[in-house]
């Protein structure tokens, strides 16, 4: 279905995914300027809709699927109504309106709550969590359950930012709670998203450049930490009890580093079907549902990678099984999210112990990706090759990603101009 705003919709069967009963999810696909996003749909029973490929191919004509055909048609019609009602299409604006079932559109908190719920229902757990946490934080700051858009002023946003960045004692905690600028930015970008979509009448728009008297959302400090080859070699050689959680955590961290710096979510989702001959082929979870032309990442299986798969991979190796024991087939999006978060926490905790033992700076799962990029860069690899390995779709993204490494190089040479006396 098309509109004069070039956005299109469609009801599709996502054959790449299946549940424990080998059924595939039915989703709403929205395409705009060659970019695609997919949204999980609910059936007549209000549960996530799954079908066989055979049933999906006949639901438009089969008599038994007539109620479902009507139901899905209404869903797509609603999507098109939302698209037509947007002054300018963007996926953020579409989602904020499509997922919003709020009667009180003057209330920021109600819309944020509704958006978070719908995102969670659609399986977009990570994004839903940012809306939910941001909403709880704003409620704590204001002491209110409702908050009209008219009160979202530049002063309010500055006061909230100051409150967030001020350490404060929370009842039942020994240490003061400290929020980062990154957290503030995530929460307030969500506020800006719904603000842009609702466009409350008569309310001055508070977001923009500070030099114009508007509120500029803070950006997190660029603290990408990367290890040297010497440090990484020490981690690889560190002795941990055979078969222990510590050994597995170290190997998972090394696997992430060796496999183009893939994150733990992508690692957890790897199946034996992703292995072909001497390489692993995957599509990053971060972009798999948002880009029309999927970007694949190819990872050459080295001896080190092979040993980690042999040590921790599921046996016997079945094509449809996950390689590592983090996820299970048929998991709900919520359980998958929790399992991955638990894996990250376990790896980080054990990596901290290993780094303390080696007397090197503490690293996390996040460090593996930046260590991969840094080692390649310092070894003379081109920006284009690094970007392709990381799964970036354009050179500028990679250059931005490597920007802090350039600053480090500049600092080294600046200090060389006039060394400090002993």
Description of the molecule:
This protein has 422 residues and is α+β, with helices and mostly antiparallel strands. The chain has 3 domains: 1-89, no CATH class; 105-221; 229-417, Intergrase catalytic core (hpI Integrase, Chain A). The chain is 48% helix and 8% strand. The protein has 16 helices and 7 strands. The protein has helices at 53-58, 66-85, 91-98, 108-121, 125-142, 154-165, 181-198, 229-237, 245-258, 264-268, 303-312, 333-358, 365-378, 383-390, 395-401, 403-417, and strands at 8-13, 24-32, 35-40, 50-51, 275-276, 279-283, 296-300. The strands form 2 sheets. Strands 1, 2, 3 and 4 form a 4-stranded antiparallel sheet that branches. It has a 3-stranded antiparallel sheet with strand order 5-6-7. A hairpin with a 2-residue loop joins strand 2 (24-32) and strand 3 (35-40). Helix 9 crosses helix 12 (333-358), helix 9 (245-258) packs across helix 13 and helix 14 (383-390) crosses helix 15. It is globular. The termini are far apart. The model has no long low-confidence stretch (mean pLDDT 85).
């Amino acid at each position: 279905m098309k509109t004069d705003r070039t956005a299109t919709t469609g009801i599709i069967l996502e054959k790449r995914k299946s549940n424990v009963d080998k059924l595939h999810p039915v989703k709403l696909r929205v395409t705009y300027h060659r970019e695609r996003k997919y949204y999980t749909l609910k059936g007549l029973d209000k549960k996530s809709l799954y079908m066989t490929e055979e049933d999906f191919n006949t639901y438009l004509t089969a008599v038994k699927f007539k109620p479902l055909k009507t139901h899905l048609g209404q869903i797509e019609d609603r999507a098109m109504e939302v698209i037509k009602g947007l002054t300018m299409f963007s996926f953020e604006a579409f989602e904020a309106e499509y997922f919003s079932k709020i009667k009180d559109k003057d209330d920021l908190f109600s819309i944020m709550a509704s958006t978070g719920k719908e995102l969670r229902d659609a399986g977009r757990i990570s994004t839903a969590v940012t809306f939910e946490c941001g909403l709880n934080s704003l409620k704590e700051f204001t002491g209110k359950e409702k908050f009209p858009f008219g009160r979202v002023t530049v002063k309010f946003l500055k006061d909230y930012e100051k409150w967030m960045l001020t350490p404060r004692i929370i009842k039942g905690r020994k240490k003061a709670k400290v929020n980062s600028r990154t957290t503030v930015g995530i929460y307030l970008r969500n506020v800006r998203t719904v603000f842009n979509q609702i466009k409350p009448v008569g309310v001055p728009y508070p977001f923009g450049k500070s030099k114009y008297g508007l509120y500029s959302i803070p950006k997190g400090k660029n603290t990408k930490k990367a290890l040297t080859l010497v440090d990484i070699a020490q981690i690889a050689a560190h002795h941990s009890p055979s078969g222990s959680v510590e050994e597995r955590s170290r190997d998972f961290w090394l696997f992430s580093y060796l496999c183009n710096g893939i994150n733990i979510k992508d690692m957890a989702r790897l199946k034996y079907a992703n292995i072909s001959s001497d390489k692993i082929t995957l599509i990053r979870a971060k972009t798999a549902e948002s880009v029309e032309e999927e970007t694949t990442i190819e990872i050459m299986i080295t001896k080190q990678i092979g040993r980690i798969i042999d040590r921790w991979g599921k046996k016997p190796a079945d094509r449809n099984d996950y390689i590592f024991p983090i996820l299970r087939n048929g998991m709900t999006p919520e359980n998958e999210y929790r399992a991955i978060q638990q894996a990250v926490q376990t790896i980080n905790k054990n990596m901290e112990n290993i780094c303390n033992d080696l007397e090197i700076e503490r690293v996390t799962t996040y460090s593996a990706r930046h260590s991969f990029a840094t080692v390649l860069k310092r070894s003379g690899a081109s920006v284009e090759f690094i970007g392709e390995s990381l799964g970036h779709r354009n050179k500028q993204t990679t250059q931005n990603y490597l920007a802090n490494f350039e600053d480090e190089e500049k600092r080294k040479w600046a200090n060389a101009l006039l060394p400090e006396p002993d």
